[in-house]
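Section 5.1 Outputs to date
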Amino acid sequence: MSVTIVDSKAKHDYILGKLPKNSLRAIYFWATWSPECKLMGTVVEALAKENPFVTFLSVEAEEVEGVADLYPIDSVPAVVILKGNGSKPVEVIIGANPPGLVQAIKKH
């Protein structure tokens, strides 16, 4: 499965609203100026291909208004893991932490 680019809050809400109640979602927040984000972007792309049961979303944190504010992140890169039909994260990975992201996907 590929990573879906989220370019508006409406698209974010639509995608999350149509997913099955028990689905696992990973929302990757990034910025164009960050070298760490480029590294994590590669990891997210690879994980999306390896884990078709997970819905991966990609959000440019500084350009897409209203989405990053929904989650407990204060820097990029960050990946928010959601499970079930709630919007409360079950895990948040801050920084360039590929092993942490892999572990979080496997755990949930």
